[in-house]
Amino acid sequence: MRPLAVFFDLxxxxxxxxGLMADCVRRVAEEMQExxxxxxxxxxxAAYLQASLxxxxxxxxxxxxxxxxxMRRWTWEAALRRLGVAxxxxxxxxxxxxxxxxxxxxxxxxxxxxxxxxxxGYRTGxxxxxxxxxxxxxxxxxxxxxxxxxVVTSQELGRSKPDxxxxxxxxxxxxxxxxxxxxxxxxxxxxxxxxxxxxxxxVWVRRRPTQQxxxxxxxxxxxxxxxxxxxLLP
Length: 234
Ligand SMILES: [Mg+2]
Description:
Blueprint: E1 5-8, H1 17-31, H2 41-58, H3 68-83, H4 90-100, H5 110-119, E2 123-128, H6 132-141, E3 151-153, H7 154-157, H8 164-174, E4 181-185, H9 188-198, E5 201-205, E6 221-223, H10 229-232
Parallel strand pairs: 1-2, 1-4, 2-3, 4-5, 5-6
The protein binds magnesium ion.
Magnesium ion (MG) is lined by residues 9, 11-13, 185-187.
């Protein structure tokens, strides 16, 4: 059945959050070589990305008192613990924040695919677990805002993906039934699981070669770039 609406996740689906994060962490690690000569930047990047995944699984800005700066602090603390670094977190955190703030990197396929889907008559919207103000800033900065309506953020709902209610609210705002909606996202436990539970068709965008963990929810479609959507949605 041809869907009426296609919803997208933001981070690592439309914008390259992990790529930008990894580059900034690498810069921090390189600059810290004088203090920590036995800390290879590759290892710091791997530890940070893993810690970030775990922190985001545990909390999101939809929870009271949780903010992106706090989540960054928890991520650095967890990464340094993992690396066996006993030193203070502040130098890492401060330098990272200075490098990371004010930057967003859209994937080159995001805008053309959204434009083409709209041209073909699909409604396109956003469902994100990120902080409302930050996510809206990213949309403005990348000029994706005009291509996404509705924009549903977990923070304003007080619920996070994979809670099906978040997906159902997006469908309501778009005026479509969940069964007539697709959800495209990079996280199996949040995007795919939640979309399936809400009755949507779930598309897993796997931009980096990662294993599908056993027991993970099964997506209806797997794509490696958004461009493939143009074949799935004529
Ligand atoms: Mg994501």
